[in-house]
Design a protein that fits this description.
Distance between the termini: 47 Å
Number of strands: 24
Number of domains: 5
Strand order of the largest sheet: 2-11-10-3-9
Largest sheet: 5 strands, mixed
Number of helices: 25
Shape: elongated
Radius of gyration: 33 Å
CATH superfamily of the largest domain: DNA ligase/mRNA capping enzyme
Strand content: 15-25%
Structural class: alpha+beta
Length: 706
């Protein structure tokens, strides 16, 4: 167990000191990423857990509290490119509550500090915690003079020119406002505006943004205010800094004053008198979260009376009179608006839930996987339901449960016909035991346009044709393109010829390309015009034909003409051809059937003919039949010093041996390098012939490096 995973109560003083040093550096790094660069590295919950651990260690070892303790820090340093503004009243952060018990502790601590019994005599405001960028806007004599970000809590960035482009923020205050006013709140981007911006960026071939919060922060930090003006930023007012006079004596009264002055304030803000009422409002906001036009990550509770706020005062970096009740990390509730069917490369139909946009774990989620028809039935999910979703790391979001099912909820009928233009039947394959499987597939293969694009992505993948500069992103760019389409593999190899006939619309003149990048792409394509037989077979994307199966077929048939002839014969039901292929090692009935089905589709055979006419296909290296290891099964283990693992494998296969990854009774030879462990032990137990690298080279008659 490392210091960073060891329970706090089990740490020694030396371990605690080292852990506090690690946490200070780690949290400083994340503060800079989040506040300074608008690019968080970890989810909020993980960040909060690091801070809680730091506080727990400091509470147990108060003598070890560091000068640079995260407890004393707010935000991050001012970014380069902006002048600095010092806040007359510091902009501090809030402590967090993560469950109902934390909220009870907060309220009870307020009563204890003030010496009052918890008789509901103290009112609190409860307002949504907007996920945006904190802002302080200063007015003098009714005119907006400066606007600054939080920065490190003491000094912020001067973003006055950019804030003046936000239409919701008044440039002047009405008559009667105090001579000095600092209104504080949150600059944010509405979900609708964020999605529209991303759609525009994608249409222009530019990089899209991850979430509204980072986009709002980045937009506000533009050195060119015209960029900020184009981003449709919004603002909610909820606090204040330096004030020459207070126009109200309660938190709620100040919010009403801001609204009267022309500032947007959040309509979900309420004044409440009990713990139960606070928690009930929190739950209600959480349930409505998906339908809000902006992102929130919790609810903030504040003591309402300002004189009580003054008595409660502050800790080192947070007020005693306020706390943020955070929503559970990585989960959220939203409305399911539709269920669509996606078709993968192998024709599998996967239902996808379309959701009202919601930010989960720092990413805007608009859909979630439903896996298959059985999963829809198990969850009991219907269109228009409110559902709870979960996102873990980079995993595709999933639906956990139905939260609420309205009267207008509609059941989903899984299609029996593929939604592609071919309208081919959806088949449900049998499992090895003869039962119906859960996966339903379009029977159209490469002819299905949905599968075609995924086939193309597979075709250019690393273990297939591996064309430098032509990956999944570029296939998306070229597929269906009106000027220079790639709709089948052969189109890749006619790309240069077609481009040269395009005049002003040539690739080098399009966004994302230039003379050099276009030429590099054409050269990379040309380099793959000569291809190994096994790479071609694998690149066709035939179901059940993986990398190893493609190599087996290439070695067995030797050249493309023989492979093609056998495949067409199998498609025509030739029993001899079927038996011949089925007899090959590692080839079974499922592979033979898949090859027959693929080459039995005229569209597929036409596509293959078009492709092979563009290629020079190398014959497979024929294994040496007189090799001393021909037909034997070899396993390599340990750290090979005179050849890489790939070289060893290729050598063995070239000599006619079969290479396995684990030792069994069928293993004939184990070649063990330094550090060989369990495989060597097992080989010795089974009586398998073992040797080192020198022994291997001596056996096969090859000189190392030769």
């Amino acid at each position: 167990m490392t210091d960073e995973t060891k329970p706090v109560d089990g740490l020694s003083e030396a371990e605690a000191k080292a852990e506090l040093e690690r946490l200070a550096a780690e949290l400083a790094r994340h503060d800079e990423a989040y506040h300074g660069k608008d690019a968080p590295i970890i989810p909020d919950a993980q960040y909060d857990a690091l801070k809680r651990r730091n506080e727990q260690i400091e509470a147990r070892f108060p003598a070890l509290v560091r000068i640079d303790s995260p407890r004393f820090k707010v935000g991050a340093a001012v970014a380069e490119g902006f002048s600095k503004i010092t806040h007359k009243v510091p902009m501090l952060s809030l402590d967090n509550a993560f469950n109902d018990e934390d909220v009870r502790d907060f309220v009870n601590s307020v009563y204890r500090f003030l010496g009052q019994l918890p008789d509901q005599s103290i009112a609190f405001t409860a307002e949504p915690k907007i996920d945006g960028l904190s802002m302080s806007i200063r007015y003098e004599q009714g005119k907006l003079v400066t606007a600054a970000t939080r920065g490190d809590g003491t000094t912020g960035e001067n973003v006055t020119a950019n804030v003046k482009t936000i239409s919701e923020i008044p440039n002047t205050l009405p008559a009667g406002a105090p001579s000095v006013v600092e209104v504080r709140g949150e600059v944010y981007m509405a979900k609708e505006d964020f999605l529209a911006l991303n759609a525009r960026m994608a249409a222009e071939g530019k990089q899209t943004y991850v979430n509204p919060r980072n986009t709002a922060a980045g937009s506000l930090r533009q050195l060119d205010s015209s960029v900020t003006a184009s981003r449709k930023l919004k603002f909610f007012a909820y606090a204040w800094g330096d004030m020459s006079d207070m126009p109200a004596d309660t938190q709620h009264g100040m919010i009403e004053t801001f609204e009267a002055w022309g500032f947007p304030v959040n309509p979900l803000t309420k004044r409440l008198g009990s713990i139960e009422a606070l928690i009930e409002h929190y739950n209600a906001i959480g349930l409505a979260r998906a339908e809000l036009p902006y992102d929130i990550d919790g609810v903030v509770y504040k003591v309402d009376r300002l004189d009580l706020q003054a008595r409660l005062g502050f800790r080192s970096r947070s007020p005693r009179w306020a706390i943020a009740h955070k929503f559970p990390a990585e989960k959220a509730t939203t409305k399911l608006t539709a269920i669509d069917i996606q078709i993968g490369r192998t024709g599998a139909l996967t239902p996808v839930a379309r959701l009202e946009p919601i930010t989960v774990g720092g990413v805007v989620v608009t859909n979630a996987t439903l896996h298959n028809a059985e999963e829809i039935e198990r969850l009991g999910v219907r269109i228009h339901d409110t559902v709870e979703i979960q996102r873990a790391g980079d995993v595709i979001p999933q639906i956990l449960r139905v939260v609420e099912s309205p009267a207008n909820a509609v059941s989903f009928d899984f299609p029996k016909i593929c939604p592609c233009e071919l309208k081919t039947p959806v088949i449900r394959e049998e499992t090895a035991g003869g039962m119906e499987g859960v996966i339903r597939r379009c029977s159209g293969e490469f002819a299905c346009p949905f599968q075609r694009k995924e086939h193309l992505k597979h075709f250019v993948s690393r273990k297939a044709f591996d064309i430098d500069g032509l990956g999944e992103k570029q296939i998306e760019f070229f597929y269906g393109d009106k000027t220079l389409p790639i709709n089948q593999p052969a189109d890749i190899f006619t790309l240069r010829e077609r481009d040269e006939a395009n005049g002003l619309q040539r690739l080098k003149n399009r966004d994302g390309y230039g003379d050099t990048s276009a030429q590099k792409l054409f050269d990379a394509i040309e380099a793959r015009r000569t291809i190994a037989l096994d790479r071609l077979i694998f690149g066709l994307g035939i179901r059940h034909v993986g990398e190893q199966t493609a190599k087996t077929l290439a070695r067995a048939y030797g050249d493309w003409a023989s492979v093609h002839e056998a495949a067409l014969a199998i498609a025509n039901g030739d029993k001899a051809a079927i038996e011949e292929m089925d007899a090959l090692d590692d080839i079974g009935p499922a592979v033979v059937e898949a090859i027959g089905r693929f080459f039995g589709e005229p569209h597929n055979t036409g596509m293959v003919d078009n492709l092979t006419a563009q290629l020079t296909i190398l014959e497979a290296e024929k294994p040496a039949q007189d090799s001393p290891v021909a037909g034997l099964t070899v396993v390599f283990t340990g750290s090979l010093e005179k050849m890489t693992r790939d070289e060893a494998k290729a050598m063995a296969e070239r000599l006619g041996a079969k290479v396995a990854g684990s030792v069994s009774k069928k293993t004939d030879i184990l070649v063990a390098g330094p550090g060989a462990g369990s495989k060597l032990t097992k080989a010795q137990e089974l009586g398998v012939r073992t040797m080192d690298e020198d022994g291997w080279f001596e056996l096969v008659g090859v000189t190392p490096g030769g």
